Amino acid sequence: MKKTQILRLPQALKMMAISRASFYRSIKDGVIPPQVKLGPNSVAWLSHELETIISARICGYSDDEIKQLVNELITARQSLMENI
Q1: Over the stretch 26-54, which tens digit does the pLDDT of each residue have?
Q2: The predicted structure's pLDDT at residue 21
Q3: pTM of this prediction?
Q4: Which of 28, 31, 42, 78 has a CA 20 to 30 Å removed from the CA of 68?
Q5: Side-chain half-sphere CA neighbours of 18 within 13 A
Q6: How far apart, in whole angstroms, are the C-alpha atoms of residue 73 and residue 70?
Q7: Could you give phi then psi for residue 37, rounded to 5 degrees?
Q8: For the sheet containing 42-46, what is the strand order?
């Protein structure tokens, strides 16, 4: 398993190969996981989550399937935080 990296906005945009506006629209639409808060003025995205979404797109998942996948990623993230 690859290590998860924390990606700042420019890195996340480059990985997803979409514009900033499309990136945030995709988050709003639920097809990209939301950012994690690193501090009061700092956010990032988890590389393994974005890689999962890219893989789903490559495999031909529908937007509804990707939304479900995003919800599963968010749930996994929350359960990880509970175990800390």
Answers
A1: 999 999 999 999 999 999 999 999 999 99
A2: 98
A3: 0.90
A4: 42
A5: 14
A6: 5
A7: -85, 125
A8: 6-7, 42-46, 36-39
Mean pLDDT along residues 8-13: 98
Task: At 40, list the tokens.
Answer: 């009061």
Phi, psi of 27 (to 5 degrees): -65, -45
- Taking alpha carbons only, the member of 41, 37, 45 closest to residue 7 is 45
**44 pairs with which residues across the strands?**
36
First to last CA, the chain: 20
Answer for the pair 36, 45: CB distance below 8 angstroms, yes or no.
yes
Q: Which helix (H) or strand (E) holds 38?
A: strand 36-39
